[in-house]
Every structure is written in structure tokens, then in C-alpha cells.
Amino acid sequence: MPVDHYENFPVASILMPRRLRKPVAAIYHFARAADDIADEGDLPDAERLRQLDIFRDELKRMAADETPLPPLFRHLAAEVKAHALPMQPLHDLLDAFSQDVVKKRYTNYDELLDYCRRSANPVGNLLLHLYEEATPVNLAYSDAICTALQLINFWQDVAKDWQIGRVYLPQDDLARFGVSEAQIAEGRADAAWRALMKFEVDRARALMLSGKSLGTILRGRIGLEMRMIIAGGLRILDKLQAADYDMFRRRPVLKPFDWVIMLAKSAPF
Fold first, then answer.
1. Does the pTM exceed 0.85?
2. Alpha carbons 181 and 101: distance in angstroms, whole number
3. SS3 for 105?
4. What are the contacts of 113-118 at 24+ separation with CB within 8 A?
């Protein structure tokens, strides 16, 4: 999963059945392109929102069974049609990316979860539809895993997000633990910071573990892929803890030996 965006999601990996690699790649390329509009370069906010609206227009063309214009959407349309994928998760992703353009702070955890519902959970939803495993129970487990992965990515990237003006740590949690945004700017990991991040890491871990049953419900290579994803997220949390929650100086990443550990931990739960 060593990619710049959506690094905690599978992207047509060697574990993915060959028949699913093209649709997974089409979904990923759509999400990454839209995410880049929201995040990359020096475009003014109005232009970012305009370009995301163009993506929405292309989704409407797909829904109307019209031929989309850009190749990215032609490929996506072919896979959506071939696998009868729902369109709402794609719209939810665009809503989340548009929100990133205009919303830079989150009052509380519930607000953050609502963002994750649209920024991360749609990917799991679409994958379960591809697997033909989109039952209500499986979707609930997937939502827990995907939201946890999104939170883990936030806690990895506190410093990086600060550089682009975003703070995903809930404002009420900052206040509760006595941490200011000035401290984030300084990159100061004192006792208050460590207490705050331990709280956030523990919460993300509990959420991930609440969805882990999906890794045994899904069978074969898909199940192994899911267990590896879960193990990878938990491994990053372990690294955050081992770094004493100082991600300013030691941003945790998965290295080759971590994959050995993850594979060992990916036997059926």
C-alpha cells in the first residue's frame, strides 16, 4: 500500500483476484484524481470546487447512460456497468473532497466521523459490491475498518495536514487535553500531546478491532487481503505508540519487515 494517497487501501495488489483488478484500479484512479484536485497545487478554492463539479457532471452522464468524455470516466463507467456498482459512494467521495476545500477544523468526533463516512467508507462499500459480499453486517464491519484507516492516516499526517491548514484532531479533544494549535505548529510532543494522541490511537484501534470479523467472513484471497489491511492499520498504530506519539519527528510507515509481521498476523482470527 505504498502510495501517496489512500495508502491504507488495496490498489489492485497481488492478493486481489485478477478479475477485480481493473475495477479496483478504476475506483482508485477516480478517488485519487478527485483528491488531488482538493489537495494539490496552488489553485484557489473556487477553482478546486469548480473542477470537482465537473467530476459530478461526469457521474451524472454515467447515471444517464451517456458516454463520459474523459478517459478516466469512460473506464470507470465501464466497470460500474459491468459490476452493477452503486453510484452514491462515488458522489459521497466528491462531497468529502469538496468539504476538504472549505472545512479545515472539526468541532468534535461526531463531525469527524461524518466526514469519514463520505471520505473513506465509500471505498469499502464499493469493494464489497465488487466481491458480491455487500450484506448489511459486512457493510457495518467495513465502515468500521475504513473509518479507522482514515483516522490512522490523520494521526500519521498531523504535521503534513497542518502545513496545508487542516487540523483533523477534534477541537473539543484538543481543549480537553490542553493542547493548542500553536503546539502542533511547533511540533512539540509533550505530556499533554502524548495523552491526547494515546486517546486518539486507542479509539482508532478499538474501532478497527470492532470490524475485524470481516477478515474471516470474506474467504480466500479477498479475506487475506482484508486481514492484511487490518494488520497494516494496527501496525501503524503500534508504531505511533512506539514513537511515544511523536509523529512530528517519526512519521510511521510500513517497511518490508512490517509486511512479514503483518502476513504472520493475517492468519484467520
1. yes
2. 19
3. strand
4. 113/147, 116/146, 116/147, 116/150, 116/151, 117/92, 117/143, 117/147, 118/92, 118/93
